[in-house]
Amino acid sequence: MNWYVKNFKNLTIEELYELIKARVDVFVVEQTCPYPELDNYDQVSVHMFLKIDGNIAAYVRLLPEHSKFEEASIGRVLVVEKYRNQGFARRLLEKAINYINHQWKSDKIKIQAQNRLKDFYASLGFKQISEIYIEDGIPHIDMIWKRG
Q1: Phi first, then psi: what are they for 59, rounded to 5°?
Q2: Taking every annotated instance into account, which residue ranges of this chain make up the domain N-acetyltransferase (predicted)?
Q3: Each residue of 55-93: pLDDT tens digit?
Q4: Which long-range contacts (CB under 8 A, 24 or more apart) does 53-61 make?
Q5: SS3 letters for 15-29?
Q6: Which ranges in the chain belong to alpha helices (H)?
Q7: Total number of domains in the chain
């Protein structure tokens, strides 16, 4: 089991392919949600992922301040189905928050969370800042994490 943190240029071609495949498998196929998965934010992002036995198990994309939002943000959070319910999502998010907080010195982190995961994100310190809205056919809310 190995954790990786890489910017776009440091991803190998194989890693990039595996990450995109995992994202498409979860967000497009599993959630039956056709949307533009490749959105031109990968190039400015930090990609954090967990590999177990050579396979992608969990992944998150970290976007710096003033890229997608004014705040730093976390997106494309996923745990591959066979690795779910083992605590990897929490560990992944804790690592992502820590990275943004310490490496980028960002005080705020914004997410666009699926509404069904509101309590999970709240348990990590995120607070709801929007009403429920539909994005790509799925109810979402905006949430903010603030240091201190």
Answers
A1: -155, 150
A2: 6-148
A3: 999 999 999 999 999 999 999 999 999 999 999 999 999
A4: 55/18, 55/80, 56/18, 56/19, 56/21, 56/22, 56/80, 57/1, 57/83, 57/88, 58/83, 58/88, 58/89, 58/91, 58/92, 59/19, 59/22, 59/23, 59/92, 60/92, 60/93, 60/96
A5: HHHHHHHHHHHHHHH
A6: 13-23, 88-103, 118-123
A7: 1
CA distance 51 to 148: 31
pLDDT digits (tens, 9 = 90+) for 119-144: 999 999 999 999 999 988 889 999 99
Q: How far apart are CA 103 and CA 92, in angstroms?
A: 16
- Find the domain containing 117 and state its range: 2-146
We report the CATH number of the domain holding residue 63 as 3.40.630.30
Burial 62-101 (b: 16+ CB within 10 A, else e): bbbbeebbebbbbbbbbbbeebeeeebbeebbebbbebbb
Tokens representing 91 are: 């560990």
User: Which residue type does 104 have?
Assistant: W
Paired tokens of 22: 């995992």
